[in-house]
Amino acid sequence: MIRRSDNDLHSIPGGQLELGETLTQTAVREVHEETGIDIEVTGLIGLYANPRHVIAYDDGEVRQEFSICFRARPNGGFPRTSSESREVRWAEPDQLDELNIHPSIRLRLRHALEEREEPFYS
Questions:
Q1: What is the DSSP string of 15-44?
Q2: Domain of 24: which CATH number?
Q3: Are 7 and 84 in contact (CB under 8 A)?
Q4: Chain-wide mean pLDDT for the chain?
C-alpha cells in the first residue's frame, strides 16, 4: 500500500500506460516508481470503470478513469517513498479497516482478497 502524496489516502500503486509499453510493463514500472519494489505480474484481478467516479485535476482536466488491476508478487527492490507516495507499507488484510482508503480501491482490495477464479468486469 502507498499513502498518496496528493490526497493523503492509502491506495494501491498505479498510473498511466506510456507509449511502447505493455500493460504488465506499466504495472511493473508504476509499482517500482511509487514504492521501490520490483514485482512480477501473476494474474488479473479485474477491469474497473465507474461513470459516477469522475476525477478533476488541478490543471482543469476532468475525466472518468478506468483501471486494470493486476495480481503480483514482489521479487526485489527496497521499499521507499516517491513524489507520489509519502508512505509505503505492507498491510495485512485485518489492518485495512484502519486505513483511509477510497471505496473504489477498497473494492479492488476486496476482489483481490477473494481470490476469484475469474476477473471482475464492470
A1: -PPPTT--HHHHHHHHHHHHHSEEEEEEEE
A2: 3.90.79.10
A3: no
A4: 95
Q: How far is CA 23 from CA 27, 44, 107, in A?
A: 6, 11, 21
Number of domains forming the structure of the chain: 1
What does the alpha-carbon distance between residue 87 and residue 5 come to, in Å, rounded to a whole number? Answer: 8
The CA distance from 86 to 45, in Å, is 26
pLDDT digits (tens, 9 = 90+) for 38-76: 999 999 999 999 888 888 888 999 988 899 999 999 999
Domain span at 49? 2-121
The 3-state DSSP composition of the chain as helix, strand, coil percent (nearest 5) reads 25, 40, 35
Helices (H), the chain: 23-35, 103-114
Contact 45, 70 (CB under 8 A): yes
